[in-house]
UniProtKB/TrEMBL annotation:
Regions annotated as coiled coil: none
Organism name: Exocentrus adspersus
GO cellular component, one term: mitochondrion
GO MF annotation list: metal ion binding; metalloendopeptidase activity
Descriptive protein name: Alpha-MPP
Superkingdom of the source species: Eukaryota
One Pfam family this sequence matches: Peptidase_M16
Family that this chain belongs to: Belongs to the peptidase M16 family.
Gene Ontology biological process: protein processing involved in protein targeting to mitochondrion
InterPro entries cross-referenced by the UniProt entry: Metalloenz_LuxS/M16 (IPR011249), MPP/UQCRC_Complex (IPR050361), Pept_M16_N (IPR011765), Pept_M16_Zn_BS (IPR001431)
Family matches, as Gene3D superfamilies: Metalloenzyme, LuxS/M16 peptidase-like
Length: 225
């Protein structure tokens, strides 16, 4: 009991001494600040500096001398999709878009649903064989070089219902892009070397799918099966 009472007494003494020291230090700091700053300077400490740094007006005032901005207006007539049927039966869907680039694609009513039970996977092979050599372009490099002249890219995608050839480039190269799509769609060479390259790419994809299965792809195949 005596030991516990001694500890409590010592603790109270230390707390009282610390409180006295804390009050004394605060008083010293306040007196030092009052001595350092006059009453006017002390009032200005809480106010931001009023010195002007730039000639620009504040954010709540407009900048003088700037022309009136002209904003783009949305017009429904410019955004509608126009569908035209040519004399040869080809259906063309076109739509105006703002910018220097255009995208052109060929959608074919073909896909894996039209394949026979064996051999299957022809659409997958055609997807890998797209934009290779044609009658006009001897190899894939010629096609890539033609697209690079117009800052373009190309791609192909096969689904169960459709097969798509597409390319994007500057609007100035629209005619060349259409010719390129016609060559890739109607006049591909499909050489033995290209078929071997497509087979290797597909084999690699199947190995990757077996190591890291994608649920969406496998589930879709099971549903359609």
């Amino acid at each position: 009991m005596a030991l516990q009472a001694s500890k409590i007494l010592s603790k109270n003494v230390l707390q009282s001494q610390n409180n006295k020291l804390w009050r004394k230090s605060n008083q010293c700091i306040g007196q030092c600040l009052l001595k350092q700053y006059s009453s006017a300077e002390w009032t200005n400490l809480s106010q931001p500096p009023r010195k002007k740094v730039t000639n620009m007006p504040p954010m709540n005032e407009p900048v003088k001398g700037l022309p009136k901005p002209i904003y783009a207006n949305f017009k429904e007539d410019n955004q509608t999709t126009k569908v035209t049927v040519l004399s040869n039966g080809l259906t063309v869907a076109s739509e105006n878009r703002f910018g220097e680039f255009c995208t052109v694609g060929v959608v074919i009513d073909s896909g894996s649903r039209y394949e026979v039970a064996y051999p299957s996977g022809v659409s997958h092979f055609l997807e890998k064989l797209a934009f290779n050599s044609t009658k006009h372009y001897p190899d894939r490099d010629e096609i890539i070089n033609q697209l690079e002249k117009h800052g373009g890219i190309c791609d192909s995608q096969a689904s169960r219902d459709t097969f798509i050839y597409a390319a994007s480039a500057y609007t100035s190269g629209l005619n060349d892009v259409i010719q390129l799509l016609a060559e890739a769609t109607l006049r591909p060479q499909i050489t033995p070397d290209e078929v071997d390259g497509a087979r290797q790419a597909i084999h690699f994809e199947l190995e990757t799918l077996s190591m890291r299965p994608e649920q969406e792809t496998l589930l879709m195949d099971m549903i359609h099966a």
